[in-house]
Amino acid sequence: MARGHNRGSRAFAAGIVAALAAACAGPQSAIDPAGPVAESVATLWWVLFGGAAAILALVMGLVFYAMFRPPERRVKLPHVPFLIGAGLVFPTVVLTALLVYGTGVGRAIIAEAEAPLRVQVTGHQWWWEVHYPAQDGLPAFTTANELRLPVGRQVVFEIRSADVVHSFWIPNLGGKVDMIPGRTNVIRLEASRPGRFRAQCSEFCGAQHARMGFIAIAEEDADFTAWWRGRAVDSAGVDAPGRAVFEREGCVGCHAVAVTSRSLEAGPDGRAPTLSHFAGRPTVGAGAAPLFEQSLRAWLMDHGATMKPGSLGPQDRVIDDEATLDALVAYLEGLR
Ligand code: CUA
User: Fold this and answer.
1) pLDDT in tens, 117-151
2) Is any ligand 1 atom within 6 A of the Cβ of residue 201?
3) Is the CB–ligand 1 distance for residue 123 below 6 Å?
4) Which of 200, 213, 246, 267 has fewest C-beta within 10 Å?
5) Torsion over CA of 95, 100, 106 and 110, rounded to 10 degrees?
């Protein structure tokens, strides 16, 4: 009976450990690193966690020893040397070592590689404008709520905001950096393996802060370059029959569809995400939902009033006419 009970507790403990370990992995986890910067930060995190856990265990052990060991059976330590050793020398050594190690990690992860890729990301309430300046013989283009990067090459992100303070964070690739109006911050990240990683705005920026995300896709260089070339020319389907409905409903007033080679933040187009190549994006509403016909339809019915209440756009205008919805869905899904 006791043995069965023991086995049961062991299985339970193993289950907890497995669940905790599984909770560390995933497409939005700072301790499931997919690049050298994230790797250094995750290692630093584990060292701090391990050290803190060991010291906590030691201190708690001493507390319990003091509480429960009868006074006559306690080991008698010389008070002053013990106080100096455990209270002064030990923390000084530990904290100095951590400071040196942490500072080294901090310096290493901000170093700029040779010939990095440059990408500008601007935060808006509550979406992301992503601009790829012309480089490596490839033309400039602007997109929104999607980001791709080549595996094995450092990307220098120039980070801005068009309105309030947001924060740019792709946990699997590294640390975060604030997006501050009127200021350009820089963060250098690299993906060491292909994958899809969820990014999340990490600074409270209003009602839809939690739904300000996007999927960053790391892919091999050839795929990345092919994607760039595709994005830098007008979408197929721009002049499809649904275009008339798109114009009639006033969508063109805020959303650019043609590829634009400049950053949108200064222009009137910057009011809303460009919809160029919209069908190739993983999500609708900047991370509000995966892009499916149903989610797109749900978004269009009230311009996100249900899915992302408070975001800009005509949320008071309901489109319940099936033919109009069909035409808009077909038009947007044709923008490839
Ligand atoms: Cu943008 Cu929080």
Assistant:
1) 999 999 999 999 999 999 999 999 989 999 999 99
2) yes
3) yes
4) 267
5) 170
